[in-house]
Specification:
Elements lengths: L4 H44 L39
């Protein structure tokens, strides 16, 4: 059985459409991967070039200590130690 040239072209068309769709899918996936790779590169570059060293000059320094003394209500005499001589 002989096929005409037009029949061959019709039979071959679905295969080229499917491979064209696969190429499109591969391009979309590749583009998304490239975009993600660029974002990761930018994040990596930003995090590795960040410095934490800061220099400054001290203008003044003062220390202050405050001790709160609570009143116990006792007389001053109560704080003395009274010794009784031994007999």
């Amino acid at each position: 059985m002989r096929r005409r040239a037009g029949q061959k072209a019709l039979a071959a068309r679905p295969a080229t459409q499917a491979s064209g769709q696969q190429n499109k899918t591969v391009l979309v996936v590749g583009a998304i991967a490239l975009i993600l790779l660029c974002i990761c590169g930018i994040v990596f570059a930003t995090l590795t070039t960040r410095t934490t060293d800061v220099s400054g000059v001290v203008q003044s320094l003062a220390w202050e200590r405050t001790i709160a003394i609570m009143n116990s209500g006792r007389d001053r005499e109560a704080w003395r130690i009274k010794f009784r001589p031994r007999r």
